[in-house]
Amino acid sequence: MATQSCVYDVPMALDSTLSRTRGLDPSSAMERNNQHLSDCLDHLLGPMPPDDFLDTFLPLSSQENKSGKARSRNAFKDVPVRWAAFDEMCSRLLPALNKCTPKQARCPGFVFEVAATRSLHPREPGFMKPGICCYASDNVAAVHNSSFESRVELGYAELFIDMKPDPMDDFFIDPPSNINDELRDSHEFLRLVEDDPVNAIHTLGQHVAFVTEILARQFRTFLFSISLSGSSARLLRWDRSGCVVTEAFDIRKYPETLCEFLWRFSQTSNAGRGHDTSVQLAPPNEQSLFLNALRIEVRAQLELDDPAIEEAVREHYSPGHVYTIDILRQDLPASMDTTRRYLVSRPVISPLTLVGRGTRGYWAVDVVTRSVAFLKDTWRLTAVEELEAHTLQRLNDLGVRHVPLLAWHGDVCESTHSSERPTARDYQRTSTDRVRSASWLCQVNQRKVHISRRRHYRVVLGTVGYGVSRLRGAEELLHAGYDVYIAMRDAFAKDSRIHRDLSVGNIILVKHPDHPIRKGYLIDWEVSCKVDDVGEAREVGRAGTWRYLSRRMLRPDDYELKHTFQDDMEALFYVVLWCALMYQPHNLTLEELRKFVAEFFDERMPFGPGIVRGGGAKVMNVMFRSYTSTIEFGSKHLGEWINTVADFLSSGDRWKGRDQDKWSNPEHLDVYWATFLQTHTLERDNRFVHVLRSPREDGFTPPASRPPSHHLQSSHTPPLVPSHTSDRPKQESRKRPSSEPNPDAESRMAKRFRSGRARVQQAATKDDRVLECARSPSEGRRRSERLVKKREEEVRVAEEKRQKDRAAEKATARGKGRGGARVVAAGTASKTTRTRTTSETGRGSSRKPRVRRAASYGA
């Protein structure tokens, strides 16, 4: 066995209060699980034969000694085919998993323990933990010494077992063994979500949520998990490209498959179990070096006094959790001159999705120079030839203003000690793509899966700053926004390049010693690309952050769309508008603000298989100013800027005359913005934070945070299960600043919403396509209500039928003297479910029915 060390239980990014983990609010767990489910459907490969799975992902060593392996015969004979009580199942499964004698063991060096019941609310999404977790023996004490409130189990889990009571609860359906290749290719591997959407989110969506959180709480390249439905098991392997799933096998009948997996798992190296061994715990002297350098940089950026420095440092530092990362310069052999050592601790960005870049972002300290830099850890697409560092270096060389300086970069190697140039095999890369053309593949969710090859990559920037959530006032917002616009124009003029991902997360505020207002920098140029002779992106398709995309890029009916500079201009306008709504005083109530955000920024509606659309409110606003004209900002000049730029945007609409167009030529906005900043005195310190809580959060009381607040949840794809909650926000008491006008008794915004929709209806005679795009999201909610009622009726009918069937079965059993045996039709893909409809008062009325199995942890 290899002796490479690895680290566990790494810190995650904190929210703006520095008191909670960002992005893991329990109140929005169901929405996150829904999103996880939607995201993973295009990236599931299966069913792979278990023997092939083992040979591909856990290959045997030629010198492996199996004398210490416990016998597999009858290993799981005591495990029931299906179970009703979780505790009973664990009492039979755990002894088999942990079997150990003085000479033999099932999985030597590892311990399996129940994790599901180590929670304050084990049945509640957001508080749930996997049924059983596997830990290295050295880490068991750390788990035992932690509180039930923590998520430390996921910080130490080597793998986990997701447990469901019945084989019919399996996520997947294998094709018949004698099926031909053509029929296999069209076989639906996924148990269709439409058959049982609520249970799909509770099970598969929750499984993906566990995987995602483990990958965020550990330094990992991949993760194994086991799905156990009754006695039917599947092995799964997850990485940033997707997941490979095996065929189902019964551990009672075929115990050797699971036993062989556990043995090989115990015998491989830490890297072979998915750990990123390029990260190591820093020695004490380097931990002190990191903390001292960090304090100096935080003081310079935030201009804080000593007592406040320590609080601000917590965003980047967790005591006892400082790590070393050695980065070998791209495509060069390892040496003292080609490797740089950086120290990191708590990230400011943690990966909250499974498939994709999985980006972590750190304030890092160069061990040699002791300077603070920004280290971006990501999984890049290997199909993209131009690396982000190459783009940044080119922009730096061309003199593009307000973009970060490149310091260092390189793909991640398993070892940086070789003096030879690394080969492709030496780099950390995804492996799901290795089987994307296998003959055993079936379709998932009625379409072919999409798998991309990715490679682990790190880039270090010499420029550090704070996100726009730290904005101090209207002055800083518009000055930083203009700096970003300069960066956009410079890149377009000097390199024919557009950014394509203007968002709140891709702008930082940087303090320069000689400038009283922090500068805005445009970061994350990874998806940027060159434009052609007509100003369109050379790459086809939608890119960027949904919330800030332009109206045009939200259209679902044109896959040949290409970004333009004007799309980036529009996205920047939405970024400024978002910041004004979140961090400036205005007249909208919490309820109105939540509705504005949901309709204007977060609307995402299904538009056919795998297609979503949005932007209806943005279309309405361009045509009729239905949204922005209803807002009165505490800063009069900020409101003036927003309304004027909205007019510029509207002037470029096709319904306006071309002689009025002030949008197609970026110079118009540049001149106006620069002149505006020179001629207007904006508020320097009028920050006012609005925190919007979801109605579902009424049942969750977070720790106390800083004053005045309204907390905003991140946007998600609409639930696969239609949901509708009452608009009863939990409004915190707060003193309204004198600069913030009181809202009218009846919201003018609500009136304008209705009148705007009426005008869109009148405009239908002009263009049915515009009407379709501008349709109010409220219609989607009304449709959701109808679907909820329909679903409730289906549940009621199913429950009545179940009761009748059960009564008939009992009567038949009594007549035949056979007791109450359960009959399951062979080969069927449907099943009888136990149902319960809940109103869940205090979390919003008209909640969707929750379909629950006999399966509840601790039931």
UniProtKB/TrEMBL annotation:
Entry-linked Pfam families: Pkinase_fungal
Compositionally skewed regions (Basic and acidic residues) per UniProt: 725-738, 765-812
Name of the protein in its database record: Fungal-type protein kinase domain-containing protein
Fungal-type protein kinase domain mapped to chain residues: 209-579
Annotated stretches, region: Disordered: 698-859
Top-level taxon: Eukaryota
Organism this protein belongs to: Dichomitus squalens (strain LYAD-421)
Lineage: Eukaryota, Fungi, Dikarya, Basidiomycota, Agaricomycotina
Composition bias type Low complexity, residue spans: 821-844
